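call fold target=Band 7 domain-containing protein
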Amino acid sequence: MDPSQDSAAPPSPPAQSGGSFGIPARLAFASIVIIASLAVVPSCWYTRSSLSILHQVPEGHVGVYWKGGALLKTITEPGFHLKMPLVTQYEPVLVTLQTDQVRDIPCGTKGGVMINFEKIEVVNKLKKEYVYETLLSYGVNYDNTWIYDKIHHEINQFCSSHSLQQVYIDVFDQIDEKMKDALQCDCTKYAPGIEILSVRVTKPIIPERIRRNYEQMEEERTKVLISIERQKLKKTATVSNILREQKLKEKENAMELQEIENQMFIAHQKCRADADFYSAMKEAEANKMKLTPEFLELKFIEAIANNTKIFFGHKVPDMVLDQRLLVGNFLENVSQQVHGERQMKSDDNA
């Protein structure tokens, strides 16, 4: 070997891949690529929430955060907030009223008829103080477990224990409350942060043939009800006529009784008047028989004796005597008149 070859210069290093750019250029190029990718990346919420630094929590929501896939206890109120990009993920969670619509729920009744509930609406609310516990146990889609899946289960349980007549007609108005109570019972036990406010169940879709039968039954029932109401009206009218005639009879009887009482009162008053007249006549006859000169003189003397005034003077005896003469003349006339009347009566009797 030629010794001169050992002292030869070492070969030049190979060219770097990527051209003549160094390490700083590579970092700049990587930054440009990242920015460009952010500009063209689809508007996926998860991607934007991971890469963004500033984020906004809308009103009616709270912000929840994950770091490396682990749920953080940090809960933020509505407004603007900061987070670490790529490291911390964020999602807003609704804590006001929301309505979940559960659609197309098939179920079989007790008799084996398949029906379908087209839509059931569940009004619910997640309590703010239970956000962390609820998401930790059931995730962001907690309503899938406790509302959507649960309503399917409860509807099937209800249908399997009731007949089609009960589900479609008899107890349909009770399904709302039964579903609400069933959902709230399990949520209170296993997920206390979920509050079920109301459940609205639409009329289920039943087979067309059975639906026509129900319509015919309803028509017949309506006809029967109309007939019953007509009979009630006729019965009411008949009863009203009977009551009216009864009242008229009562009024007529009352008038007859009043007429009899009036006649009895008139007869009684007439008898009483006749008795008074007879008594007055007899009293007059008795008084006339009392008018004798001796009786009148006695009454005159009693009247003079009852006088409390005493007069003194030489004229008094004359006055008394004059009065006695007057009275004597009067008594004489009366005696003659009475004697004449007695004489006339005796002549008539003869």
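return ok
The domain at 95-206 is CATH 3.30.479.30 (Tetrahydropterin Synthase; Chain A). Strands lie at 54-57, 61-67, 70-76, 79-82, 88-94, 98-108, 114-126, 194-201.
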